[in-house]
Design goal:
There is one protein chain. About 50% of the residues lie in helices and about 10% in strands.
Length: about 210
């Protein structure tokens, strides 16, 4: 169902030796035109992901553990990648859940709906049933949120932000709108988080 999606697998590369500096252009890339975060005293970390991406699904538990123990002064956000109309519909599901203040409740179930239950979350009726099952949202409330202009605007903003970040595959992490890291460059998904921590320290030192 998702064979045409643009994905990046975490291809194994030699892991950086403990204590060795991570190198720009090798372990991470600088974003050509930095994207403003609007933050002055915190470092922003963004995961760009897609619900249809099996690598994002595999990475999510690891990322969840990192989020619970992330360094102080770090604001973490997720941004759904929008590479096509099909990805746009899944981003719409993400922002509908955010609008209803049930993002945390629906994030894992949306992943599992695709990768475990083989459901098509591009189908609005399927989504309505998932929102009812996992968060007790009525069909009316779901429909209002899913079709809201504000939700569709956020999807458009996510598409623009992914383009500004230079995203070509997911999962990708972006630190402070300046640096882009993926599993291929970092050597693994776990390595990606290690590079992110390195870049956080780099950015905090500059505050």
């Amino acid at each position: 169902m998702y064979g045409s999606f643009l994905l990046i697998a975490a291809v194994s590369l030699p892991t950086a030796i403990a204590g060795e500096a991570y190198v720009e252009g090798v372990h991470y890339e600088a974003i050509t035109v930095p994207v403003s975060t609007g933050l002055t005293d915190q470092v922003e970390v963004v995961e760009v992901f897609g619900y249809g991406c099996i690598h994002c699904y595999s990475f999510d538990p690891m990322l969840g553990r990192w989020e619970k123990t992330k360094p102080a002064g770090v604001e973490f956000k997720r941004v759904p990648a929008v590479f096509s109309t099909q990805w746009s519909l899944m981003a719409q599901a993400f922002y509908a859940a955010e609008t209803l203040a049930i993002g945390d409740k629906m994030h894992e179930p949306l992943f599992e709906a695709i990768h475990i239950d083989q459901l098509d979350i591009r189908d609005e009726q399927v989504l309505a049933e998932l929102f009812a099952e996992h968060a007790g949202v009525s069909a009316i409330d779901f429909s209002k949120a899913y079709s809201a202009f504000s939700v569709k605007s956020r999807v458009s903003q996510a598409r623009a932000k992914s383009a500004a970040y230079g995203i070509t595959g997911v999962p990708t992490m972006v630190v402070n709108g300046k640096y882009r890291v993926d599993g291929r460059m970092a050597g693994s998904n776990e390595g990606m988080l290690e590079v992110v921590d390195f870049l956080i320290a780099k950015e905090k030192a500059a505050l």
